[in-house]
Specification:
Blueprint (H helix, E strand, L loop, with lengths): L3 H6 L16 H6 L9 H13 L4 H5 L7 H15 L4 H5 L1 E4 L2 E4 L12 H10 L6 E5 L5 H9 L4 E6 L2 H14 L4 E5 L11 E6 L32 H9 L4 E10 L5 H11 L2 E7 L5 E8 L2
Parallel strand pairs: 3-4, 3-6, 4-5, 6-7
Antiparallel strand pairs: 1-2, 7-9, 8-9
The structure holds glutamine.
Glutamine binds next to loops.
Length: about 300
Amino acid sequence: MPSIAELLQHAELVDSPPWVTKMASIAELLQHAELADSPSAQLDAELLLAAALGKPRSYLRTWPEREVAADCAAVFAAHLARRRNGEPIAYILGRQGFWSLDLDVASHTLIPRPDTELLVETALALLPANPVAVLDLGTGTGAIALALACERPAWQVTGVDRVVEAVALAEVNRARLQLGNARFLASHWFAALAGQRFQLIVSNPPYIAAGDPHLSQGDLRFEPSSALVAGVDGLDDIRLIIQHAPQHLNAGGWLLLEHGFEQAEAVRELLSTQGFMAVESRLDLGGHQRISLGQWSL
Ligand code: GLN
Protein backbone atom coordinates (compact mmCIF):
# COMPACT_ATOMS: atom_id res chain seq x y z
CA MET A 1 0.00 0.00 0.00
CA PRO A 2 1.73 3.26 -1.07
CA SER A 3 1.81 6.19 1.34
CA ILE A 4 -0.13 9.36 0.61
CA ALA A 5 3.20 11.07 0.10
CA GLU A 6 4.09 8.60 -2.63
CA LEU A 7 0.68 8.97 -4.20
CA LEU A 8 1.06 12.75 -4.20
CA GLN A 9 4.56 12.63 -5.59
CA HIS A 10 3.43 10.63 -8.60
CA ALA A 11 0.08 12.32 -8.99
CA GLU A 12 1.05 14.27 -12.09
CA LEU A 13 1.98 11.05 -13.86
CA VAL A 14 -1.36 9.29 -13.66
CA ASP A 15 -4.68 10.01 -15.31
CA SER A 16 -6.88 9.06 -12.41
CA PRO A 17 -5.41 9.92 -9.00
CA PRO A 18 -5.29 6.79 -6.80
CA TRP A 19 -6.95 8.54 -3.83
CA VAL A 20 -10.22 8.57 -5.74
CA THR A 21 -10.80 5.28 -3.94
CA LYS A 22 -9.02 6.24 -0.69
CA MET A 23 -9.67 9.92 -0.02
CA ALA A 24 -7.21 11.77 2.20
CA SER A 25 -8.19 14.31 4.84
CA ILE A 26 -6.88 17.87 5.01
CA ALA A 27 -4.63 16.92 7.94
CA GLU A 28 -3.23 13.88 6.11
CA LEU A 29 -2.47 15.85 2.96
CA LEU A 30 -0.67 18.54 4.95
CA GLN A 31 1.23 16.02 7.01
CA HIS A 32 2.61 14.30 3.92
CA ALA A 33 3.23 17.38 1.80
CA GLU A 34 7.04 16.89 1.94
CA LEU A 35 8.34 20.37 1.22
CA ALA A 36 11.40 19.91 3.40
CA ASP A 37 13.64 22.04 1.15
CA SER A 38 11.62 25.17 1.80
CA PRO A 39 12.19 27.19 4.99
CA SER A 40 8.46 27.90 5.09
CA ALA A 41 7.32 24.35 4.24
CA GLN A 42 4.31 24.20 6.55
CA LEU A 43 3.02 27.62 5.53
CA ASP A 44 3.60 26.87 1.84
CA ALA A 45 1.67 23.59 2.04
CA GLU A 46 -1.20 25.34 3.82
CA LEU A 47 -1.32 28.15 1.27
CA LEU A 48 -1.33 25.68 -1.62
CA LEU A 49 -4.00 23.43 -0.11
CA ALA A 50 -6.21 26.38 0.88
CA ALA A 51 -5.94 27.70 -2.69
CA ALA A 52 -6.73 24.26 -4.16
CA LEU A 53 -9.82 24.12 -1.97
CA GLY A 54 -10.76 27.73 -2.72
CA LYS A 55 -10.94 28.42 1.04
CA PRO A 56 -9.06 30.65 3.48
CA ARG A 57 -6.21 29.07 5.48
CA SER A 58 -8.31 29.13 8.66
CA TYR A 59 -10.57 26.52 7.04
CA LEU A 60 -7.73 23.97 7.24
CA ARG A 61 -7.44 24.41 11.00
CA THR A 62 -11.19 24.31 11.49
CA TRP A 63 -11.79 21.15 9.42
CA PRO A 64 -8.62 18.98 9.59
CA GLU A 65 -10.63 15.73 9.38
CA ARG A 66 -12.58 16.76 6.29
CA GLU A 67 -11.84 14.63 3.24
CA VAL A 68 -10.51 16.44 0.18
CA ALA A 69 -12.24 15.87 -3.16
CA ALA A 70 -10.10 14.13 -5.77
CA ASP A 71 -9.96 17.10 -8.13
CA CYS A 72 -8.76 19.44 -5.35
CA ALA A 73 -6.20 16.88 -4.17
CA ALA A 74 -4.89 16.61 -7.73
CA VAL A 75 -4.52 20.40 -8.01
CA PHE A 76 -2.72 20.40 -4.64
CA ALA A 77 -0.39 17.63 -5.80
CA ALA A 78 0.47 19.47 -9.02
CA HIS A 79 1.17 22.70 -7.09
CA LEU A 80 3.31 20.83 -4.56
CA ALA A 81 5.38 19.40 -7.38
CA ARG A 82 6.01 22.91 -8.73
CA ARG A 83 6.92 24.17 -5.27
CA ARG A 84 9.26 21.22 -4.76
CA ASN A 85 10.96 22.33 -7.95
CA GLY A 86 11.60 25.70 -6.29
CA GLU A 87 8.97 27.82 -8.02
CA PRO A 88 7.82 30.75 -5.83
CA ILE A 89 4.43 30.36 -4.15
CA ALA A 90 3.33 33.69 -5.64
CA TYR A 91 3.80 32.39 -9.20
CA ILE A 92 2.04 29.10 -8.43
CA LEU A 93 -0.95 30.87 -6.92
CA GLY A 94 -0.77 33.83 -9.33
CA ARG A 95 -1.39 36.11 -6.36
CA GLN A 96 0.63 38.07 -3.82
CA GLY A 97 -0.40 40.36 -1.00
CA PHE A 98 1.25 43.79 -0.95
CA TRP A 99 0.33 46.63 1.41
CA SER A 100 -3.45 46.21 1.81
CA LEU A 101 -3.87 44.87 -1.73
CA ASP A 102 -4.17 41.41 -3.23
CA LEU A 103 -2.34 41.52 -6.58
CA ASP A 104 -2.22 39.23 -9.60
CA VAL A 105 1.38 38.29 -10.35
CA ALA A 106 2.91 36.49 -13.32
CA SER A 107 6.33 35.22 -14.25
CA HIS A 108 7.22 38.32 -16.30
CA THR A 109 7.03 40.56 -13.21
CA LEU A 110 8.99 40.76 -9.98
CA ILE A 111 7.09 39.40 -6.98
CA PRO A 112 6.24 42.34 -4.70
CA ARG A 113 8.26 42.17 -1.45
CA PRO A 114 7.35 43.34 2.07
CA ASP A 115 10.56 45.46 2.05
CA THR A 116 9.09 47.59 -0.73
CA GLU A 117 6.23 48.62 1.57
CA LEU A 118 8.81 50.95 3.15
CA LEU A 119 8.85 52.86 -0.13
CA VAL A 120 5.06 53.25 0.03
CA GLU A 121 5.14 54.28 3.69
CA THR A 122 7.87 56.86 3.07
CA ALA A 123 6.10 58.29 0.02
CA LEU A 124 2.86 58.69 1.97
CA ALA A 125 4.66 60.52 4.77
CA LEU A 126 6.55 62.88 2.42
CA LEU A 127 3.66 64.60 0.68
CA PRO A 128 0.33 65.99 1.79
CA ALA A 129 -2.87 64.39 0.50
CA ASN A 130 -3.37 67.28 -1.99
CA PRO A 131 -3.79 66.45 -5.67
CA VAL A 132 -0.31 65.81 -7.07
CA ALA A 133 1.11 63.81 -9.97
CA VAL A 134 3.15 60.78 -8.93
CA LEU A 135 5.24 58.43 -11.08
CA ASP A 136 6.24 54.79 -10.41
CA LEU A 137 9.10 53.66 -12.68
CA GLY A 138 9.30 49.94 -13.46
CA THR A 139 5.92 49.29 -11.92
CA GLY A 140 5.75 45.51 -12.60
CA THR A 141 2.50 44.28 -11.05
CA GLY A 142 1.63 47.92 -10.30
CA ALA A 143 2.19 47.23 -6.59
CA ILE A 144 3.68 50.57 -5.52
CA ALA A 145 1.53 52.70 -7.83
CA LEU A 146 -1.68 50.98 -6.74
CA ALA A 147 -0.86 51.12 -3.03
CA LEU A 148 -0.26 54.89 -3.38
CA ALA A 149 -3.38 55.40 -5.49
CA CYS A 150 -5.43 53.46 -2.95
CA GLU A 151 -4.13 55.44 0.04
CA ARG A 152 -4.30 58.85 -1.65
CA PRO A 153 -7.42 59.14 -3.82
CA ALA A 154 -6.49 62.73 -4.77
CA TRP A 155 -3.10 61.72 -6.22
CA GLN A 156 -2.84 60.96 -9.94
CA VAL A 157 -0.48 58.03 -10.16
CA THR A 158 1.26 56.94 -13.37
CA GLY A 159 3.04 53.58 -13.48
CA VAL A 160 5.38 52.72 -16.35
CA ASP A 161 7.17 49.56 -17.34
CA ARG A 162 9.23 48.60 -20.37
CA VAL A 163 7.64 45.13 -20.40
CA VAL A 164 4.23 45.32 -22.10
CA GLU A 165 2.98 42.19 -20.29
CA ALA A 166 3.70 43.92 -16.99
CA VAL A 167 1.75 47.01 -18.09
CA ALA A 168 -1.21 44.78 -19.01
CA LEU A 169 -1.02 42.95 -15.67
CA ALA A 170 -0.82 46.20 -13.70
CA GLU A 171 -3.89 47.38 -15.59
CA VAL A 172 -5.73 44.15 -14.67
CA ASN A 173 -4.89 44.80 -11.02
CA ARG A 174 -5.95 48.44 -11.30
CA ALA A 175 -9.29 47.55 -12.86
CA ARG A 176 -10.05 44.82 -10.29
CA LEU A 177 -9.20 47.21 -7.44
CA GLN A 178 -11.25 49.95 -9.16
CA LEU A 179 -8.59 52.60 -8.70
CA GLY A 180 -9.54 55.32 -11.17
CA ASN A 181 -6.63 57.58 -10.14
CA ALA A 182 -3.92 55.25 -11.49
CA ARG A 183 -2.88 54.65 -15.11
CA PHE A 184 -0.23 52.46 -16.69
CA LEU A 185 1.92 53.03 -19.77
CA ALA A 186 4.62 51.14 -21.61
CA SER A 187 7.81 53.13 -21.26
CA HIS A 188 11.47 52.36 -20.77
CA TRP A 189 12.05 54.54 -17.73
CA PHE A 190 11.25 58.12 -18.86
CA ALA A 191 11.24 57.44 -22.62
CA ALA A 192 7.48 57.91 -23.14
CA LEU A 193 7.16 60.76 -20.61
CA ALA A 194 8.77 63.65 -22.49
CA GLY A 195 7.69 66.99 -21.02
CA GLN A 196 5.81 65.43 -18.09
CA ARG A 197 6.63 66.49 -14.53
CA PHE A 198 5.74 64.93 -11.21
CA GLN A 199 5.80 65.90 -7.56
CA LEU A 200 7.09 62.49 -6.58
CA ILE A 201 8.93 59.78 -8.49
CA VAL A 202 9.28 56.35 -6.87
CA SER A 203 11.01 53.25 -8.16
CA ASN A 204 12.04 49.77 -7.17
CA PRO A 205 14.37 49.27 -10.13
CA PRO A 206 16.63 46.29 -10.81
CA TYR A 207 19.65 46.68 -8.53
CA ILE A 208 21.41 43.33 -8.29
CA ALA A 209 24.92 43.06 -9.72
CA ALA A 210 25.28 40.68 -12.68
CA GLY A 211 26.86 37.51 -11.37
CA ASP A 212 25.61 37.98 -7.78
CA PRO A 213 25.30 34.43 -6.38
CA HIS A 214 21.84 35.26 -4.92
CA LEU A 215 20.49 35.18 -8.48
CA SER A 216 20.84 31.42 -8.51
CA GLN A 217 19.04 30.97 -5.18
CA GLY A 218 15.41 30.84 -4.05
CA ASP A 219 12.68 32.86 -5.75
CA LEU A 220 15.19 34.95 -7.74
CA ARG A 221 15.89 31.94 -10.02
CA PHE A 222 12.34 32.22 -11.34
CA GLU A 223 11.98 36.00 -11.58
CA PRO A 224 12.78 37.93 -14.79
CA SER A 225 16.41 39.04 -14.78
CA SER A 226 15.32 42.31 -16.43
CA ALA A 227 13.59 43.14 -13.12
CA LEU A 228 16.59 42.14 -11.00
CA VAL A 229 19.93 42.76 -12.69
CA ALA A 230 21.48 46.14 -13.47
CA GLY A 231 25.05 45.96 -14.70
CA VAL A 232 28.26 44.95 -12.98
CA ASP A 233 27.62 46.91 -9.78
CA GLY A 234 23.81 46.72 -9.89
CA LEU A 235 23.59 50.51 -10.16
CA ASP A 236 23.14 51.02 -13.93
CA ASP A 237 19.40 51.72 -13.78
CA ILE A 238 19.60 53.75 -10.57
CA ARG A 239 22.27 55.96 -12.19
CA LEU A 240 20.06 56.45 -15.26
CA ILE A 241 16.97 57.28 -13.16
CA ILE A 242 18.87 59.79 -10.98
CA GLN A 243 20.38 61.43 -14.07
CA HIS A 244 17.03 61.92 -15.84
CA ALA A 245 14.68 62.47 -12.90
CA PRO A 246 15.38 66.25 -12.63
CA GLN A 247 13.77 66.80 -16.08
CA HIS A 248 10.60 65.17 -14.74
CA LEU A 249 10.33 66.62 -11.23
CA ASN A 250 8.62 69.83 -10.15
CA ALA A 251 10.72 72.18 -8.03
CA GLY A 252 10.53 70.72 -4.52
CA GLY A 253 9.58 67.29 -5.88
CA TRP A 254 11.00 64.07 -4.43
CA LEU A 255 12.79 61.03 -5.83
CA LEU A 256 12.56 57.80 -3.78
CA LEU A 257 14.54 54.73 -4.75
CA GLU A 258 14.74 51.21 -3.38
CA HIS A 259 18.23 49.69 -3.59
CA GLY A 260 20.41 46.88 -2.30
CA PHE A 261 21.35 46.86 1.37
CA GLU A 262 24.98 47.70 0.56
CA GLN A 263 24.21 50.42 -1.99
CA ALA A 264 22.86 53.21 0.21
CA GLU A 265 26.07 55.22 0.39
CA ALA A 266 26.63 54.99 -3.37
CA VAL A 267 23.02 56.02 -4.10
CA ARG A 268 23.20 59.00 -1.70
CA GLU A 269 26.42 60.06 -3.41
CA LEU A 270 24.77 59.84 -6.85
CA LEU A 271 21.77 61.87 -5.62
CA SER A 272 23.94 64.57 -4.05
CA THR A 273 26.24 64.79 -7.08
CA GLN A 274 23.21 65.25 -9.32
CA GLY A 275 22.10 68.20 -7.15
CA PHE A 276 19.40 66.64 -5.00
CA MET A 277 18.91 68.13 -1.52
CA ALA A 278 17.84 66.60 1.80
CA VAL A 279 19.38 63.29 0.75
CA GLU A 280 18.94 60.45 3.22
CA SER A 281 18.37 56.69 3.51
CA ARG A 282 15.80 54.72 5.48
CA LEU A 283 15.94 51.30 7.12
CA ASP A 284 13.82 48.33 6.06
CA LEU A 285 12.22 45.74 8.36
CA GLY A 286 15.52 43.86 8.53
CA GLY A 287 17.40 46.99 9.67
CA HIS A 288 19.12 47.51 6.30
CA GLN A 289 19.36 50.85 4.52
CA ARG A 290 16.93 49.91 1.76
CA ILE A 291 15.69 53.18 0.28
CA SER A 292 17.23 56.57 -0.37
CA LEU A 293 15.56 59.83 -1.23
CA GLY A 294 16.30 63.34 -2.29
CA GLN A 295 14.43 66.54 -3.04
CA TRP A 296 14.80 68.48 -6.28
CA SER A 297 14.76 72.13 -5.40
CA LEU A 298 16.52 74.01 -8.16
N1 GLN B 1 14.71 43.02 -3.38
C1 GLN B 1 14.95 42.01 -4.36
C2 GLN B 1 15.89 40.97 -3.78
O1 GLN B 1 17.03 41.27 -3.49
C3 GLN B 1 15.50 42.56 -5.63
C4 GLN B 1 14.52 43.43 -6.29
C5 GLN B 1 15.14 44.40 -7.22
O2 GLN B 1 16.18 44.18 -7.84
N2 GLN B 1 14.48 45.49 -7.34
O3 GLN B 1 15.47 39.87 -3.59
